[in-house]
Amino acid sequence: MVEKNRVMKDFLRKIYWLLSAQFGFDPRRLGRSLQGIPKYIADWLRFRKTYKGEIRFFPCLHDWHEEGGSTRGEYFWQDLHVARKIFAANPETHVDIGSRIDGFVAHVAAFRSIEVFDIRPITALIPGVVFTQADLMSPSEANKDYCDSLSCLHALEHFGLGRYGDPIDPEGHISGLSNMVRLLRSGGVFYLSVPIGQERVEFNAHRVLCPTSLSRLVSAMGFVLHEFSWMESGKPLVRSENIEHDLSRLDKCPYALGIFTFVKK
Hints:
globular; about 260 residues; Rossmann fold; eight-stranded mixed beta sheet; two-stranded antiparallel sheet
């Protein structure tokens, strides 16, 4: 019964995401906005009694249901967590592959320069950000021993699925990893985050990767797993005290976000 409830919740969550993110219809926001109409009218009438200037209608009907800012999503905690690590490490050259410009990259650019490689164009000139449009599935885009610090947050799982205009390649994430590690010098640090759990492809959104297999793959490329943290849905970010045990447990979970910190030998 518990498993059926979990499957149903996952199904409804995906339907909600599809309607809101892909078709622009958000049932939850619609419901809150409809509930807000009586309050809006009452507030307008109360304000109008004592204000004699021009008033135009510009209804915002659901904001009073929200917190001052959203801290629930895994992107928020991931971006903050890794940006703080880079601030503490103060590397010579930090390169990012495909992470959020309006999240992680902006955090880092607030206190240091950062180079960004992404298959998608970025037309804005952003202070502190040096942008290069590049397909990291192609070996020609990866200059060997280029940097001493590298990040790829919530991006690798998309490689080869075509979602962002990249070529279709079932092994695209492996090609991408191989090219990324070439960029990093010996002793450099690689911050990698991906969805983890029971391995599968949810086409064309992303892959969910087996954390133990991923750790072994990167280790075979000449890295040591220095630190591992994870975040399950609706729960706080956790730093592992027993990495092997936690990776094994998370191999079987439906979905979590894994944040790996590797050091190149």
